[in-house]
Structures are given as C-alpha cells and as structure tokens.
C-alpha cells in the first residue's frame, strides 16, 4: 500500500529528531514542513535533489493534493511536524483525506516541546508525594475547549499543568487557576523556543505570570508549565525524594533495607 511518513521533528534543536525520523528525512523525495516552527537546519539534511515545500501558507486540501500526487508518482513523501505530531499537529484531518485515496500514514514520534521545556529548566514534572500527574492542555482562546475540559476544572487536580498555544492568554490562565484554588505563589515556568539558540526562560509565580510575559515580550512559541513541581528550590526539600530510591523500599529489582 502507498504510504506517507508523518515525522515529529522535535522542538527545534536539529539533533532532537529521532534516528528513525532523520533517516526518513534523508531518504525522502518530497518533504513538506511547517516552516514557522521546524528548524531549517534540520531540513537541510534532505538530499539535494529532494523537493522541499513549506506549508505555512498552504491550506489543507492544497497540501493533501501535493502529497497524493507525489505518492502516486512513486515518490517517498515525508510530512515533517514540529515536536510530536500527536499534540496539536492537526494530523487527523490530513490522514482522513489520504485515507480516502487509500494512502496509509506511518507516524514517527518526536520530542514534544513540553519535554524540551522541562529539560531546559531541569524539571521533573512528576514529583513523588507532590504530584504524579501532568495535564497537557491549552487555554481557551479563539479555539474552543470542550465543556468538561475547562482549565479551572482540570486545575482542581492541583497537578502539573502544561499549556500549549496559550502565550497570549495568561490573564485567563491566572483567573482560571485561581478559581480552582491555586495560590498566588504557585511556581510557573515559561520556556520560549525551548532548545533553540534563542531560548528564553522566565521563572515566575501565578501572581506575576501575566506581567512577566509582557515584560519579556513573550507572545508565541512558549510552553507554560505551572504547579509546585516547578518550584526552583525543590532540590532543597528532602520530603520529595522518590520512594523508588528510598533504602526502605523494596521493588522488583532491589530488596529494601528496613530501618
Ligand atoms: N506538536 C507540537 C506542538 C504544536 S502546537 C509539540 O509537540 O511540541 C504549537 C505550540 O507548541 C506553541 O504555541 C507552543 O506552545 C509550543 N511549542 C512548540 N515549539 C516550542 C518550543 N520550541 N518551545 C516552547 N514551546 C513550543
């Protein structure tokens, strides 16, 4: 069956693509990529004779028509997405159009910006005894969010929350989290362009989030991580040490020592 590759490019640093994704990129005859968010340095790995197309100015049908045409001509086609294709990648609508033409898709995962952002600040998003859950979501702007997924409801879990596509919606974020009982001093980290040379890190609190975003002029390509796991001083707090490494804890690979 004819097939198109949907490849996660990773968050920006060209070295953060998977080995599998890179091989596909290097072998593809046709490459379509989101030029606003995928690093050109990565696309430069394509073979010189490859047809490389930017998709930022294209609409869905236009893009699908090109992919269908090239696959039917026997070409190897790769669609390169930023981060991991499964998060806000709009891949389902592309796949639906391709399926109608009996073209299959193979998705190659990528490093999502949420994990590049956490890495940039050396954060663990799940701290034992503090939170064991990470919610990946977005604040509601022009794109509606389903009724049962309102930020204030999600925030009632008091776990770590990662907000995509929300840099201009910080007033709303603060309001929603507050109404879920989040305190003003809850730590928030904003990572703009994680893993790019011009990466910017802003550590703040719920109270100062909006003001600090304005001050730093951050309006796009930013990941907002909120919750006590983002406390910059977390390393100093012994009670959050994982039970997994605690001497009294027995698990499958190691017998615990009782104290
Ligand atoms: N599929 C992508 C997300 C695409 S939606 C992924 O897995 O990362 C685009 C949003 O992702 C941006 O608004 C921003 O919130 C986030 N984003 C993408 N690249 C980023 C980066 N390098 N640093 C911080 N946030 C990024």
Automatic annotation (TrEMBL):
SUPFAM superfamilies: Tetrapyrrole methylase
Ranges in coiled-coil conformation: none
Pathway participation: Cofactor biosynthesis; adenosylcobalamin biosynthesis
Residue intervals of the Tetrapyrrole methylase domain: 3-209
Pfam families: TP_methylase
Molecular functions per Gene Ontology: precorrin-4 C11-methyltransferase activity
Superkingdom of the source species: Bacteria
GO BP, sorted A to Z: cobalamin biosynthetic process; methylation
Annotated keywords: Cobalamin biosynthesis, Methyltransferase, S-adenosyl-L-methionine, Transferase
Annotated EC: 2.1.1.133, 2.1.1.271
Listed Gene3D superfamilies: Cobalt-precorrin-4 Transmethylase, Domain 1 (3.40.1010.10), Methyltransferase, Cobalt-precorrin-4 Transmethylase, Domain 2 (3.30.950.10)
InterPro entries: 4pyrrol_Mease (IPR000878), 4pyrrol_Methylase_sf (IPR035996), 4pyrrole_Mease_sub1 (IPR014777), 4pyrrole_Mease_sub2 (IPR014776), Cbl_synth_CobM/CibF (IPR006362), Siro_Cobalamin_biosynth (IPR050161), Uropor_MeTrfase_CS (IPR003043)
NCBIfam families cross-referenced by the UniProt entry: cobM_cbiF (TIGR01465)
Family classification: Belongs to the precorrin methyltransferase family.
UniProt-listed PANTHER family: COBALT-PRECORRIN-4 C(11)-METHYLTRANSFERASE, SIROHEME SYNTHASE-RELATED
Record-given protein name: Precorrin-4/cobalt-precorrin-4 C11-methyltransferase
Species, as recorded: Bacillus benzoevorans
């Amino acid at each position: 069956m004819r097939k198109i590759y949907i490849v996660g490019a990773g968050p920006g640093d060209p070295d953060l693509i998977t080995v599998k994704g890179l091989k596909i990129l290097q072998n593809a005859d046709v490459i379509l990529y989101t030029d606003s968010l995928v690093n050109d340095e990565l696309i430069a790995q394509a073979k010189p004779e490859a047809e490389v197309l930017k998709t930022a100015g294209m609409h869905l049908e236009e893009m699908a028509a090109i992919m269908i045409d090239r696959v039917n001509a026997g070409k190897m086609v790769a669609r390169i997405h930023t981060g991991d294709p499964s998060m806000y990648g709009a891949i389902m609508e592309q796949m639906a159009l391709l399926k109608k033409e009996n073209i299959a898709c193979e998705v190659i995962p990528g490093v999502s910006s949420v994990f590049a952002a956490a890495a940039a600040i050396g954060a663990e998003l799940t701290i034992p005894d503090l939170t064991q859950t990470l919610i990946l979501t977005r604040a509601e702007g022009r794109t509606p969010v389903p009724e049962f997924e309102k930020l204030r409801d999600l925030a009632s879990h008091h776990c770590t929350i990662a907000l995509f596509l929300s840099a201009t919606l910080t007033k709303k974020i603060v309001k929603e989290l507050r109404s879920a009982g989040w305190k003003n001093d809850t730590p928030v980290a904003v990572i703009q362009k994680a893993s790019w040379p011009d990466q910017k890190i802003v550590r703040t609190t719920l109270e100062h989030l909006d003001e600090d975003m304005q001050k730093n002029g951050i309006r796009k390509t930013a990941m907002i991580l909120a919750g006590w796991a983002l406390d910059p001083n977390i390393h100093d707090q012994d009670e959050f040490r994982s039970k997994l490494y605690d001497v009294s804890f027995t698990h499958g690979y190691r017998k615990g020592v009782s104290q």
